[in-house]
Amino acid sequence: MVTSKPSYILSLAALFSLLLNLSVGASAVSVRQPPRRAVEAPADKISPDMRERLRTESQTKQTAGVILQLNGRPTARLNALLNRRGVHVRAGFKHFDALALDLPMSAVEELASYDEVSYVSPDREVGLLGHVSTTTGLEAARAQFGGGSYGIDGSGVGVAVLDSSIYNGHVMFDSAGGSKRVVKNVDFVCPTCKTADFKDMYGHGTHVAGLLAGNGRILSGAYEGIAPGATLINLRVLDGNGAGAVSVVLRALDWVMDNRAAYQIRVVNLSLGTPAVDSYRNDPLCKAVRRLVDAGVVVVAAAGNNGKDASGQKVYGMIHSPGNEPSAITVGATNTFGTDARGDDAVATYSSRGPTRSYYTDAAGARHYDNLVKPELVAPGNKLVSSARTNYSPFQSNITYPEGSVDDSRKMLYLSGTSMAAPVVSGAAALLLQANPKLTPNMVKMILMYTAQPLAGFNTFEQGAGEINVEGAVRLAKLVRTDLSAGTAVGAPLLTGAVPAPQTTIHYVTSSGSAASTSFTWSQGIILSRTYAAGQPLITAYQGIYGLGVIYGDGVIYGDGVIYGDGALMSDGVIYGDHILTSYGTTIGEGSPFLSVGVIYSDGVIYSDGVIYGDGTLLSDSAFVADCLTRGDYAPQNLVLTNGERP
Question: What pTM was computed for the model?
Answer without folding.
Answer: 0.84
